[in-house]
């Protein structure tokens, strides 16, 4: 299948339990459709590494497998969205910058206008994660596809045991399914890969619980809004072609 060119803006959220492969799918979508993305986890980890006030606040919560406070997350993500021009500071139409596509004004009173221009496409990985975060996002921009990555529980547990990451980029590998070209080092930069400290079994169990309690209910919210689409698969390689086809069907 020839991939690549979108006809209209895709504003996609990836939802799924920790370890379901959101990071992997997001990397592949970026590559296949030239989308840009924000990973809330990567953004937080960058702040932790840089020891920003926000990072210092978030670090212990992340280490314990809990959820960072909604108000911090909304500030962080909405800030990043407007920095990149994907939502507007009202009255200042970032979407007006698109030279190739028409402008569609969403009639919903709470959500401001969004650009239909394909270059205004973006993907969110890991945000929103609670009802309150979803409501805040609704007020900023109307997302038009929410992908529910439905991966069996036992597969997720197995996968986390072998997960390696390249922290600076967020690229994810697995010692069984998705090996780096050279053991222990990133394919692109050659830098060392590490294990995430919150992938330890006890912390991971807490993250799964937080997902079930706080995030899973979001699926219903987006189902009601008519934008939910569920994809099932045991491996990322089973999911990718289905996801590519769906993006192609809806936006290309
Ligand atoms: P995976 O990367 O395997 O999909 P994950 O989705 O649990 O797992 P990240 O998205 O990287 O992992 O998030 C790591 C941690 O960062 C979370 O456990 C949580 O503490 C914090 N975090 C990330 N996004 C949010 C969010 N939207 N709201 C609250 N906390 C968040
Ligand atoms: Mg992730």
Automatic annotation (TrEMBL):
<feature type="binding site">
    <location>
        <position position="45"/>
    </location>
    <ligand>
        <name>AMP</name>
    </ligand>
</feature>
<feature type="binding site">
    <location>
        <begin position="19"/>
        <end position="24"/>
    </location>
    <ligand>
        <name>GTP</name>
    </ligand>
</feature>
<dbReference type="Pfam" id="PF05191">
    <property type="entry name" value="ADK_lid"/>
</dbReference>
<feature type="binding site">
    <location>
        <begin position="126"/>
        <end position="129"/>
    </location>
    <ligand>
        <name>AMP</name>
    </ligand>
</feature>
<feature type="binding site">
    <location>
        <position position="236"/>
    </location>
    <ligand>
        <name>GTP</name>
    </ligand>
</feature>
<dbReference type="InterPro" id="IPR033690">
    <property type="entry name" value="Adenylat_kinase_CS"/>
</dbReference>
<keyword id="KW-0342">GTP-binding</keyword>
<dbReference type="GO" id="GO:0004017">
    <property type="term" value="F:AMP kinase activity"/>
</dbReference>
<dbReference type="GO" id="GO:0046039">
    <property type="term" value="P:GTP metabolic process"/>
</dbReference>
<keyword id="KW-0808">Transferase</keyword>
<dbReference type="InterPro" id="IPR028586">
    <property type="entry name" value="AK3/Ak4_mitochondrial"/>
</dbReference>
<feature type="binding site">
    <location>
        <begin position="172"/>
        <end position="173"/>
    </location>
    <ligand>
        <name>GTP</name>
    </ligand>
</feature>
<protein>
    <recommendedName>
        <fullName>GTP:AMP phosphotransferase, mitochondrial</fullName>
        <ecNumber>2.7.4.10</ecNumber>
    </recommendedName>
</protein>
<dbReference type="GO" id="GO:0005759">
    <property type="term" value="C:mitochondrial matrix"/>
</dbReference>
<keyword id="KW-0496">Mitochondrion</keyword>
<dbReference type="InterPro" id="IPR000850">
    <property type="entry name" value="Adenylat/UMP-CMP_kin"/>
</dbReference>
<feature type="binding site">
    <location>
        <position position="40"/>
    </location>
    <ligand>
        <name>AMP</name>
    </ligand>
</feature>
<feature type="binding site">
    <location>
        <position position="196"/>
    </location>
    <ligand>
        <name>AMP</name>
    </ligand>
</feature>
<dbReference type="InterPro" id="IPR036193">
    <property type="entry name" value="ADK_active_lid_dom_sf"/>
</dbReference>
<dbReference type="GO" id="GO:0005525">
    <property type="term" value="F:GTP binding"/>
</dbReference>
<comment type="similarity">
    <text>Belongs to the adenylate kinase family. AK3 subfamily.</text>
</comment>
<dbReference type="Pfam" id="PF00406">
    <property type="entry name" value="ADK"/>
</dbReference>
<dbReference type="GO" id="GO:0046899">
    <property type="term" value="F:nucleoside triphosphate adenylate kinase activity"/>
</dbReference>
<feature type="binding site">
    <location>
        <position position="207"/>
    </location>
    <ligand>
        <name>AMP</name>
    </ligand>
</feature>
<feature type="domain" description="Adenylate kinase active site lid">
    <location>
        <begin position="163"/>
        <end position="198"/>
    </location>
</feature>
<comment type="subunit">
    <text>Monomer.</text>
</comment>
<dbReference type="GO" id="GO:0046041">
    <property type="term" value="P:ITP metabolic process"/>
</dbReference>
<keyword id="KW-0547">Nucleotide-binding</keyword>
<feature type="binding site">
    <location>
        <begin position="66"/>
        <end position="68"/>
    </location>
    <ligand>
        <name>AMP</name>
    </ligand>
</feature>
<keyword id="KW-0418">Kinase</keyword>
<feature type="binding site">
    <location>
        <position position="163"/>
    </location>
    <ligand>
        <name>GTP</name>
    </ligand>
</feature>
<dbReference type="InterPro" id="IPR007862">
    <property type="entry name" value="Adenylate_kinase_lid-dom"/>
</dbReference>
<feature type="region of interest" description="NMPbind">
    <location>
        <begin position="39"/>
        <end position="68"/>
    </location>
</feature>
<dbReference type="GO" id="GO:0005524">
    <property type="term" value="F:ATP binding"/>
</dbReference>
<feature type="binding site">
    <location>
        <position position="133"/>
    </location>
    <ligand>
        <name>AMP</name>
    </ligand>
</feature>
<dbReference type="GO" id="GO:0006172">
    <property type="term" value="P:ADP biosynthetic process"/>
</dbReference>
<dbReference type="InterPro" id="IPR027417">
    <property type="entry name" value="P-loop_NTPase"/>
</dbReference>
<dbReference type="GO" id="GO:0046033">
    <property type="term" value="P:AMP metabolic process"/>
</dbReference>
<comment type="function">
    <text>Involved in maintaining the homeostasis of cellular nucleotides by catalyzing the interconversion of nucleoside phosphates. Has GTP:AMP phosphotransferase and ITP:AMP phosphotransferase activities.</text>
</comment>
<feature type="region of interest" description="LID">
    <location>
        <begin position="162"/>
        <end position="199"/>
    </location>
</feature>
